[in-house]
């Protein structure tokens, strides 16, 4: 197989299909989504048989239990995928929405219309549900998709892709609206990252290694999500019971997510009061604490935090703690070490809250709320294709609108420029 | 001079200054802008003396008259620059604006706050007014700026930069909010394009060669503007007098601008009626016509348009003309050859207008208006830093908002995720 030529063909077909999809009526796109959901349920036995091949290969290759778990298309997993597709069908169609249409002194009327980006390339690791989720989000937002999943999920991905094809066909949309790369050859990824003529944006979903490789190699813009080193700052004017509840929830509600708390900052004025109470809660949950010298002075037996701790996304029951002089020092710490994902202040003081909101340069900045709220569903986007830690284009949770662009539309009546 | 170290220092200082500027109050930024305007007028004799050094060097190096003209800081040019700064001061401050703040079922309140990008690098050619314009737009939008002008304007740019410094100082803002690269060494551009750790976006302003070089070399996202191959399609249901007026204005109001008409498409049903009348108007203006065979059959003496003509931005009194069967063929031509800048349909038919608006994938799509309206001032942006032909982030004329990003803000009252 000539990988280069194959990928060129994939790109070219995607671009053509994208033009048709950009003009598709909302009802057509929704019909495709519902039909895909129907197919996932109707073909569940076959999907699970295909999935079993991947699981067997995974076990043969010594894949970790957690990885095998993510790879499994259980009845529940298929039902969740189908439900996700129906939810995306229910979302308002962002395409074609015209906003801010206004008359100008020249007499022309100017507004902006939301339009698809064109072709979205998605590179992901073992979760086969991404095949359906990403295809559905791109479909609804009018973008053609090129999907490149992990080789360990190839049978599952192909089977899901055939359900997607059934949906496209039923709706009368071109098959190339969603293409799953047919080869497991790693060279295909490199080729995909250089399809500048056809692909408008690349979205990698997976571990840091994948995302860094994609960012470095791609000549196409990348919407990327690197670390989530999130902070909670407990101000000396915080309501301490709420501060403790939020600091506990932000760390322990789930350990492996990017919006999980990794470093707790506590104002010196309340550290002696709040830290022992919090440490008892964390101990109950089995969270290891690593503190600055002031923290260690308050919490006997607490390990020492090193410079490396402030820079680490643990994704584990470990928390680093630093006592700071005041909010200014907390903000300085956050703007130095935060991965600009999500940071929270706990305070009753509105002046401080306002200042923190403005001065912390992160994709989500919160007042008196758990960092765990930072995701597309909680924010009301309806669905998310990822969380962007970039500043350009989309920042924070990326929903349907993040997969679109705005073009200007102008109406006149024969107007000419003087 | 160690260029690499120098540029690293410039980048680091810009990043620090940007953090201060991001939090600056609106009145502080406006004070800086007005003071810069005052300084440009108060120091006009000195600015013109510095400018004279560049003009002399330009003449010695055989710079073309048009280039010397662009380089000249006449009284009028200085007054226009000062007025431009005051207009930017008058614009609403986009920074800190919170939109779509709404309560979610969880009880948290979620919105988006407009924030600066951080540090903007601007690389431009001979017009020294860009030094003041770009600095002002970045300042108002809370971004630190690194400016790299052409070596042929170095004395003028440095003199303008000293006025900018006077404004920053009067407002109590860090000097590094606006830095003009002190060396004319071309290696500085290469270093600037790789300051990923400090610079958030690069904006090249100049000819196609500059923009292509910057796009290829930069490891930082680029807001770029390549060709403007703009189209007017005269539908067979157009009002012909308006169609003729718009086609004439779009081509002849100015020849050298990116929103100038380069290819006229005419529906076969009205070609025999509209083309002779239009050709007479173009002849009066001295516009050379190059037509498809059908055009040539109608306009005797009209030259032949080749494939290359459909792909050419003339920036000159030359126009290519193609007769098309219908709107579908016009759209196909536009989506094949357009540079996705600005394209217009002339028609009375609302169904066709709606279809054209949706199907043409350009940054500005117009109905019954001249392509010449496609700019930031005409659209009401107040000012523009350029026109983007990209799809990600900013598309079309880029004003203050194009220099910003949106972060999520969340308010709770101790809310935790269940």
What is the alpha-carbon Rg of chain A in Å?
24 Å
User: DSSP helix count of chain A?
Assistant: 15
Report the average pLDDT across residues of chain A. 95
Please mark out the parts of chain A with pLDDT under 50 across 5 or more consecutive residues, or reply none: none
- Multimerization status: homodimer
Explain the layout of strands and helices.
Two copies of one chain form a homodimer.
Chain A: H1 3-22, H2 26-42, H3 44-60, H4 65-71, H5 75-90, E1 98-103, E2 109-116, E3 119-124, H6 129-140, E4 144-148, H7 154-171, E5 178-180, H8 187-192, E6 201-205, H9 208-217, E7 230-234, H10 240-252, E8 261-267, H11 268-285, E9 288-291, H12 293-298, E10 303-304, H13 307-310, E11 318-324, H14 327-337, E12 342-346, H15 350-359, E13 364-369, E14 386-388, E15 396-398, E16 404-415
Parallel strand pairs in A: 3-4, 3-6, 4-5, 7-8, 7-12, 8-11, 9-10, 9-11, 12-13
Antiparallel strand pairs in A: 1-2, 2-16, 14-15
Helix pairs in contact in A: 2-5, 2-6, 2-7, 3-7, 5-6, 6-7, 10-11
General description of the model:
- In chain A, strand 12 (342-346), helix 15 and strand 13 (364-369) form a beta-alpha-beta unit.
- Chain A starts with a helix and ends with a strand.
- The mean pLDDT of chain A is 95.
- With 418 residues, chain A is α/β, with parallel strands linked by helices.
- In chain A, 44% of the residues lie in helices and 21% in strands.
- The relative contact order of chain A is 0.13.
- At the A-B interface, strand 2, helix 10, helix 15, strand 13 and strand 16 of A face strand 2, helix 10, helix 15, strand 13 and strand 16 of B.
């Amino acid at each position: 197989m000539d990988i280069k030529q194959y990928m060129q063909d994939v790109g070219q077909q995607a671009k053509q299909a994208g033009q048709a999809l950009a003009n598709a009526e909302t009802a057509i796109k929704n019909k495709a989504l519902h039909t895909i959901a129907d197919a996932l349920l109707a073909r569940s036995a076959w999907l699970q048989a295909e999935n079993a091949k991947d699981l067997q290969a995974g076990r043969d290759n010594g894949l970790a239990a957690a990885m095998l778990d993510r790879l499994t298309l259980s009845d529940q997993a298929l039902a969740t995928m189908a439900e996700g597709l129906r939810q995306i069908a229910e979302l308002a169609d962002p395409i074609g929405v015209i906003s801010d249409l206004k008359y100008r002194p020249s007499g022309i009327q100017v507004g902006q219309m939301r339009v698809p980006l064109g072709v979205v390339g998605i590179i992901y690791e073992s979760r086969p549900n991404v095949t359906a989720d990403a295809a559905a989000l791109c479909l609804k937002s009018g973008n053609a998709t090129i999907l490149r999943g992990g080789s360990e999920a190839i049978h599952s991905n192909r089977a899901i892709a055939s359900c997607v094809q059934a949906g496209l066909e039923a709706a009368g949309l071109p098959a190339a609206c969603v293409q799953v790369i047919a080869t497991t050859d790693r060279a295909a990824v490199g080729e995909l990252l250089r399809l500048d003529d056809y692909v408008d944006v690349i979205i990698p979903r997976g571990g840091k290694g994948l995302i860094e490789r994609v960012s470095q190699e791609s000549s196409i813009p990348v919407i990327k999500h690197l670390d989530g080193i999130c902070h909670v700052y407990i101000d000396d004017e915080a309501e301490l019971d709420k501060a403790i509840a939020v600091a506990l929830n932000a760390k322990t509600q789930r350990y492996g997510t990017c919006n999980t708390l990794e470093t707790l900052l506590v104002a010196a004025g309340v550290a002696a009061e709040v830290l022992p109470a919090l440490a008892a809660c964390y101990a109950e949950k089995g969270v290891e604490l690593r503190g600055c010298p002031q923290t260690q002075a308050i919490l006997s037996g607490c390990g020492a935090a090193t410079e490396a701790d402030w820079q680490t996304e643990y994704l584990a029951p470990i928390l680093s703690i630093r006592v700071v002089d005041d909010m200014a020092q907390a903000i300085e710490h956050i703007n130095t070490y935060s991965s600009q994902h999500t940071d929270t202040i706990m305070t009753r003081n509105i002046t401080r809250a306002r200042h923190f909101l403005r001065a912390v340069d992160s994709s989500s900045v919160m007042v008196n709320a758990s960092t765990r709220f930072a995701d597309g569903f909680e924010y009301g986007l309806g669905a998310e294709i990822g969380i962007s830690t970039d500043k350009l284009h989309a920042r924070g949770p990326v929903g349907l609108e993040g997969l679109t662009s705005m073009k200007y539309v102008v109406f006149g009546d024969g107007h000419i420029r003087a």
